[in-house]
Amino acid sequence: MKKRIALLVYPNFSLQEVSNLMWLFRWYYDTMSEVVYTEKEAVMSEEGIFVYPQKTCEEFQVEDYDCLILPGCSDTRQAIQNKKLKSFLERFSGIKDFIIGAICSGPMFLAQAGLLKEKKYTDSLFVEMRDQFSFIEEDNFEAAPVVEAGNIITAQGSAFNDFAVHVARKLGYECPDKILSGYMDNWKKEDYIHHLSKEELQEFQEEFQEFLSK
Q1: pLDDT digits (tens, 9 = 90+) for 184-193
Q2: What is the C-alpha separation between 108 and 153, in angstroms, rounded?
Q3: Are strands 55-56 and 32-37 parallel, antiparallel or unpaired?
Q4: Strand 50-51 versus strand 43-44 pairing type
Q5: Is the CB of residue 158 less than 8 Å from the CB of residue 72?
Q6: Phi, psi of 124 (to 5 degrees)
Q7: Coil, strand or helix: which one is 10?
Q8: Residue 81 contacts residue 61 (beta carbons within 8 Å)
Q9: What is the mean pLDDT of the chain?
């Protein structure tokens, strides 16, 4: 193990969704996290916390890390337009032995880079968004807290503890069932299917028009 996790950030990323994962790896597996972004500049999370990247995407070397983590993002407009971010993720196409985890809206960036092609996944996007983004394969969506497809792990935003455990186990670590509290033992598909109102749908279509095909 390299004992390092790469946390890919972008404006309005969710620090909360990955905090328990970083805590778990730091205190149970002696693994630190490093922040990666396309530029060496401070990035503000959706909670208002600024983080400073230790590495740029250009400096990133896959052999230096155990996995790459993509948090969710409350406002994806800047990140989806970031061509450097898309190019960085495209570098992982064809790499099957490096673990990539994405939670909440994070999987949409994997899809944009072609990494979810013909793969099962989950995310916290609204149904209407998933249906209209040209790069998202809606038929492969699974309404579940966490979905594993080869080396890629995707999760709903509310399943941040489950996400942390799945990533740890995927990397070969022993991880007891109750290592983190807050599991949803009983869930149904409807818990992970979200809809926009008509007004919200219209606003979404106007904001993301160039990325929509339906």
Answers
A1: 556 788 888 8
A2: 13
A3: parallel
A4: antiparallel
A5: no
A6: -110, 20
A7: coil
A8: no
A9: 93
CATH homologous superfamily for the domain 4-125+135-187: Class I glutamine amidotransferase (GATase) domain (3.40.50.880)
The percent helix, strand, coil of the chain (3-state, each to 5) is 35, 20, 45
Secondary element (H or E) of residue 138: none
Q: Enter the tokens of residue 180.
A: 């983190």
| Among 74, 135, 84, 128, residue whose Cα is nearest residue 106 | 74
- Given a cut of 70, whether residue 69 has pLDDT beyond it is yes
Structure tokens at 21: 């994962």
Segment 138-186, tens digit of pLDDT: 999 999 999 999 999 999 999 999 999 999 999 999 987 777 766 555 6
Those residues whose C-beta lies under 8 Å from the C-beta of residue 206, and which sit 6 or more positions away, are none
Query: Taking Cα atoms as reference points, which of 27, 46, 45 lies closest to residue 35?
Result: 45
213 SS3 class: coil
Q: Where are the alpha helices (DSSP H) in the chain?
A: 16-29, 77-81, 83-90, 106-112, 127-132, 160-170, 198-207
**Residue boundaries of the structural domains of the chain:** 4-125+135-187
